[in-house]
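Our consortium's second objective concerns turning raw sequence data into structural hypotheses that experimental partners can test. To show how far this objective has progressed, the report includes one record in full. It was chosen at random from the queue rather than selected for favorable results. The single chain below, 383 residues long, was entered without modification.
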Amino acid sequence: MTDAPQAAARKRFLRDLERKRHVYAHLGPNWYASVMGTGIISVTAATLPVELPGLRVFALVFWAITVVLLVGISAAWLVHWVRFPDNARRWIDDPILSQFYGAPPMAILTTGLSTLLVGQDVIGYDAALIVSWFCWVLGTILGLLSAIVVPFVMFTRGLAKPDAAFGGWLMPIVPPMVSANAGAFLIDSLPHGQPQLSMVIICYALFGISLVISIIIITLIWSRLLFHAMPAAVLVPTLWIVLGPLGQSTAAANNLSAAVLRDIPGQLDEVMEAFGLLYGVPVWGFAMFWLVMAGMITIREVRKKLPFALTWWSFTFPVGTVVAGTSALANRSGAVFFEVVAVVLFTGLVAAWALVFAKTVANGFRGKLFLPPSQAALIQDKK
């Protein structure tokens, strides 16, 4: 007869084995949000309009963490697709997780941009440029696929209900805007003339794709909040995703105008520079409004004990895009006001990352983040 110590050891072994299986069994694309949220700190640290002691080293540290996370999560996701292909294919029909197919391309794009801005200090400019171009091409292709396929599935399979709009709907359509912003930093590496002009045109086209759809979805989110019950508690952090297209478009508009002024001198110089500010400042104002609104709703939920989930990474990347947009406005306008706000928002971004990263590690070790998702319960949680 098996004694108690042996039985306990066997039980622990089976539990650990099951936990390891779960690590890969239910690994959704939402895990890439951690790469986005980490990489944006490196990008914003490198583009802040003020110089702070140790900031470059700080950016390098976060670039290294971003690369490790991207490689590690990509390897784990590959195992997920190989060992659990049925689960992997089901994500596209999931009304919640399907939206996060926009996370992998944005993670790739953010890593590529941070490599160009910061990673070159370690691997050299030429290697960083190659990596950045590779990430831009791959991220742009995957981003366009997410912007097309996810809405197409929603249109044709009836996944959405009238009160289903939430911040995650922006995830699959924001990648083209991230491509537009990252592409602005690659323009001057192209030959002068038509190659640079073509890149500018492509980036503005990507800008337009994401911008128009974002306006539609933000309107739907506003309507849902106004006419229906609040989202389930774990989905409340996704309201911060609205900041993503707002901040990213502000950064893209100004960084692209800077690229035009720098690389393609001509009659459009003043027009492009004016567009960056005339578009960016009003949109930045709405971003500040939404930041306050999302913050108030989040505080309301925190008082009710907001449960932790990977959606908490929505507190990082979207805020980071606003920091990037604010820094771009500071660089284009020379306004000290934007410099101060950029530093304040950057400080808040780092604090948010520290909290979310610690929560992710703690819940990951407990195995809670690898359990099967229960989206039906989430959707009906507050009906």
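The partners drew two points from this record. The chain has one domain: 25-374. Residues 25-374 form a domain with the Glycosyltransferase fold (CATH 1.50.10.150). Both points have been shared with the crystallography group to help prioritize constructs.
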